[in-house]
């Protein structure tokens, strides 16, 4: 599956996450470090997940991509962002 197809398949989830981040101030701690934007970070991790999943047999890509989309950006204070993302469910 190409990255564009992943974006289309998970468009509803990505739109939700992007909207959530825009409401909850998606501002990087240092404006000079663009990759710190939460949505951009999510898209970067999604790209890496795609690359890694192509090299591993029997990967449930649907579960992987959903986990990636919701993994980050939900941290409050010093809470680890993956733990906070898991609490959404």
Can you describe what's shown?
The protein is built from 5 helices and no strands. Helix 3 (38-53) packs antiparallel against helix 4. With 89 residues, it is an all-alpha fold. The model has no long low-confidence stretch (mean pLDDT 78).
A few lines on this structure:
The protein is mostly helical and 89 residues long.
Low-confidence stretches: none
Briefly note the structural class of the backbone.
Answer: mainly alpha
User: Per the principal axes of the C-alpha atoms, what is the gross shape?
Assistant: globular
Order of helices and strands: HHHHH
Major sheet details: none
Set down the secondary structure blueprint.
Layout: H1 3-9, H2 11-23, H3 38-53, H4 61-69, H5 81-87
Key attributes of the depicted protein:
single chain; 89 residues; mainly alpha; 5 helices; globular
């Amino acid at each position: 599956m190409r990255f564009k197809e992943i974006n289309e398949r998970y468009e509803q989830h990505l739109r939700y996450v992007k909207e959530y981040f825009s409401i909850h101030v998606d501002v990087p701690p240092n404006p000079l470090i663009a990759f710190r934007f939460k949505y951009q970070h999510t898209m970067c991790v999604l790209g890496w997940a795609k690359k890694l999943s192509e090299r591993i047999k029997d990967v449930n890509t649907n579960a992987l991509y959903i986990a990636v989309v919701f993994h980050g950006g939900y941290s409050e204070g010093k809470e680890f962002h993956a733990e906070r993302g898991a609490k959404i469910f």
